[in-house]
Amino acid sequence: MKAIIYILMLMFVIDCRSQIIENGNPQYFPEIESQIKRITENLKVGDQFGNTYKNATLEERLANYKIPGISIAVIDNGEIKWARGFGYKDVSTKEPVTQNTLFQAASISKVLTAIAFMKLKEKNEIDLDADVNSYLKSWKIPSNNGWQPKVTIRQILSHTAGMTISGFSGYSIHDSIPTTVQILNGEYPANSLPVKVNIFPGTRARYSGGGFIVAQLILEDKFNLPFYSVMDSLVLSPLNLKTSTFEQTKLNSKNQLNATGYILDYQPINGGFDIHPEMAAAGLRTNPLDLAKIIIETQKGLQGKSDFISYKSAKEMLTQQNTDATGIGLGFWFYQNARGDSLLFTHAGGNDGFQSLFFGYKNSGKGAVVMINSSNDYELMYEVIRSIALEYNWPDRFMRENIKHNISDNLLNTYTGKYIFDGNCEILIKKAGGKLSLKMQSQPPVYLIAESDDNFYCEQLNIKVTFTKTNNIINSLEIQQDGANSIIAKITRNF
To answer: Is the dihedral of CA 442, 445, 450, 451 positive or negative?
Structure first.
């Protein structure tokens, strides 16, 4: 009897661990392994215009884009469902990507920087709406010909501070590395221009990595410590993100985990990766497993269930901060019109040799993180996200999913005619073989496919065509090209 109990206990222990490590990656229960298999063998690959999709394997798409490796983490029901690496972290050594392999998160660094400020706000140690010059000691936002702009931390974190410098190119491991003040002043050895205010703060959104370097200096001045030490204390250590770091020293104990970054045709970055002293904007090295923990804490915070971030802070980070800054919160970006009952929050990042992307849902406890060690193409990450979204029943599919709509010949006939835009530019709409054709100026005609009575798409171009009516009489058409409203043409006569 004791022997049976012992065997059952042993089976229970093995079952609870459930994961054996193979090539640095855990192996999960059969149900989860089946989900991983369905996702990685059925990526949703769109045609060049996103009208139709076909299935492909992850292995095929890595080869197609010449991307060495990818790491993925999936969140479902508010917990990490699985995390796994695929491909190589280094092409020459054939070392595999594992769930712990470190990638450069690039601009996703801004999310963690914003979280650090929210933690200080919770402790009443910082005012997001105070003039940042009141916190800065070793540098001040300079005046412009005698005019002194007032910039707040809230504006910096929401990209509404009117500050310059969108992004930074980084430094080779062989370069001299500038200090934070040298970066802000654009002084040697900095390879970027000075950070300054050149439009009215608080009046419009404009992406600025430069503003986040001001935020970096605020924390360095406040604590008299390197930025990476402050971030360890405020964010990384409390969340037990042991493998993640903002430290940029050329040699440290975490280097053996670093993936090598690649550009075109598997060409490695000189030295394996660039150094980014612009840590608050682009310096985080991490993996999807750790970033998934950030997403989960945010989701828990929004439910008032996080021991790390308060409901008030989480909600504020996902609240639009300026009338011009649609979908921009504090650090996070979000989709206000996500389908279903969930608001979708996100951020992406790209440094030379690395790209990353995450999505999380406010209400449903779903999300995913994808990171690659290549600059080649963002689209692979969206192909993975689409497959995850379908497998885990996300409210959003990230697919245009055009549906062919049956439309009567009589209605098609009402759309035919000659339309004019820009004075004398001509568009001809004709009917042929039960379809509409659109002829633009001297170009050959393209064919329109109905997705509703008034809306059409095209399989030859990335356009949408909408016909508008007044009192059931067609008066104009609108052509949306590549997502932008660009042409409105008035009908002059019917055929």
So the answer is: negative
Question: Rounded to whole angstroms, what are the CA distances from 304 to 129, 147, 311, 346?
Answer: 24, 43, 5, 20
Each residue's pLDDT tens digit, 414-444: 999 999 998 889 999 999 888 899 999 889 9
pLDDT tens-digit readout, 453-493: 999 999 889 899 999 998 889 999 999 987 777 899 999 98
pLDDT value, residue 482: 79
Q: Cα separations (Å) of 86 from 35, 81, 273, 386?
A: 15, 17, 19, 17
Q: What are phi and psi of 433, to 5 degrees?
A: 60, 40
pTM of the complete model: 0.85
Burial class for 265, CB neighbours closer than 10 Å (0-12, 13-18, 19+): exposed
Containing structural domain, residue 477: 409-494
The answer for residues whose C-beta is within 8 angstroms of residue 16's C-beta and 6 or more apart is none
The CATH number given to whatever domain includes residue 145 is 3.40.710.10
What's the alpha-carbon Rg for the chain, to the nearest Å? 26
Would residue 77 count as lying in a domain? no
Kindly state whether residues 433 and 387 are assigned to the same domain. no
Q: How far apart are CA 420 and CA 489, in angstroms?
A: 5
Both tokens assigned to 108: 């996703």
